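Lab meeting notes turned into a lecture example. A postdoc, R.K., suggested we walk through two folding results consecutively so the class can see how the record format repeats. The first protein's sequence and structure tokens come next.
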Amino acid sequence: MSAQTTETPKSGTILNRRKKKPAQGEGDLAETGGFVWTTTAWVLTLIFFAPVAWMFLTSFHSEADAATNPPTLLAGFTLDNYSALFDRGVGPFLINSATASIVSTLLVLALAIPAAYALSIKPVEKWTDVMFFFLSTKFLPSIAALLPIYLLVQKIGGLDNIWILVVLYTAMNLPIAIWMLQSFLAEVPKEIMEAAEVDGAGTLRVIWSVIVPIITPGIAATSLICFIFSWNEFLLAKSLTAVAASTSPVFLVGFITSEGLFLAKLCAAATLVSLPVLIAGFAAQDKLVRGLSLGAVK
């Protein structure tokens, strides 16, 4: 009977494998590929950013300078266009947009978190059919549902009412929010919730004290997307409001005319209307990236 022999790898061999460096050709190829991708990303970023930069610079020009062809980007700067916006009464439009966007987003979160909990943590029967139903509500184009919605709102006397927009924006964004939060909640370890329940926490306490802090990036991403969709919505706001409840996208349309020069004022209004979305996106930038990538890898 031969003695069993075992070969132990030499520590130097393992160390050499760990410290193995790429060949000179592979390293140069990787550096070249990284430079190409970086250059391509910067070129695409500048292409997408160029119209925004043109809009921002034009908003500080006079109407005569803004109407030149080709455009004179470095002409004299003035704040008269922004002053004219407030003289024209942009304030109520911004307040209406903020009211409809913020209140509808809060309502969406209040309804979507319990719904996503029921569809992911403790799934109800045929929960996949429920998810498909939520998704199917986005199949219908908004313009196809406009006439029934208008007749219904007119019947209940809700035309030119900001709270009607709040209800419609909540219904519009709720399916998307449930889909997003359901994927985030599916990533929460069940052992943590079971430990909280063993300690005596009820369902509401588990949701508020355990689940919500874990999925905060997902809630931030969902909130920002719902806020952007509500802030930029135009079709319902234009069709269902007139004076008292008009939102900022409706205000922008007032500058589109075939008579007179309003290009600089239009750029100033577009810049002013875009600022809340840009500020919200910049403030939630880190949580937005984490939230959008949270359910990407399982």
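The second example is placed directly after the first for contrast:
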Amino acid sequence: MNAVLEIHILQNFAPSNLNRDDTGSPKDAFFGGVRRARISSQSFKRAMRTYFREQQLLKPDELAVRTKRVVDALTERLEEMGRDLSEANARVVAALGGMGLKADEDKSQYLLFLGEREIARIAQLIHERWDELNVAEAEGGKKGKDAKKAAKAAIPADLSKQLRGLLDGGKAVDLALFGRMLADLPERNADAAAQVAHALGTSRAEREFDFYTAVDDLKPEDTAGADMLGTVEFVSATYYRYANVDLEQLTKNLQGDTDLALRGLEAFLRASIFAAPSGKQNTFAAHNLPSFVAFTVRRNASPRSLANAFETPVQPLGRQGLIEGSVQALVKEWQQLDGKFGQGGQTAYLATVSVPEGIPGAQEAPNVDALVEAALREARAALGV
């Protein structure tokens, strides 16, 4: 990467179950020979995308949606253009089939990650070439690849090409950050500009069980006992979180729009601080902000996670808790890697705990706004804008 912005966060979550596996247990992983608490990167990315939209950090048409219900989204737009609902639905299915994306009258075959502008342009093209999409059922009982080929051949070749050409990412920031894979249209895939690691506990994980009972409010007073019981697993840990953004790839994915790239980067930085998975929050309300956040911009450098700072699990020591111990381990790893491998950069950090001196090229920011502005200033310099 010619210019990479990296995020290092230490965040302590009180007892919670923010991200659970198929059995309902908090996710975990072995690291350094012991089991650690873990929160998946997918859950954090989902929380960030939701935060972009809820906090209006970006305009609606600068975002994407991941859905199997694109048929409904397109049909509704055509209905707003004055088209008959049932006829619109049939033409949407025909158009998606012509693009090579199998769909029935309700849903696409799999989740599609599409920019709002892409959806709008597809609807407009269907509206403009309405009569050419009035095709009969093309699949004729065919299945698999044969059915997809038949659906693709059912509409004019130039229209099929034009529809596929609309899938250029639509300058959607979340799509540009997190990338897209379309199994049937690999030429329309987008390489992710951001990499997000799974959040990993810095100490040994101790999962616990909450035994609960619920009482029927309307049961007779002379009836004893609970009417429902069960258990919920939870865990508490200090997590190390790491992510990086290839600044040039982000700009490329946004079709060279550096202003949008920088606004998207700002949204990503703010969401990295404030967004978190919401699993079981009605039960645990573990709304804990990070204790340490560092943004680093490095040029002509390889990405560098500091997760190995915690290969030896952090232990509470006297009055020093896991957060302080984790900060000390992180700074020590940072110094060692910088001294041995070079490729240093400019760092701004924010902390609510004492941070040892010695983070190379680092300056402490007094608040989030100053921290984000410092990172954006370095990003602008790295991009030459």
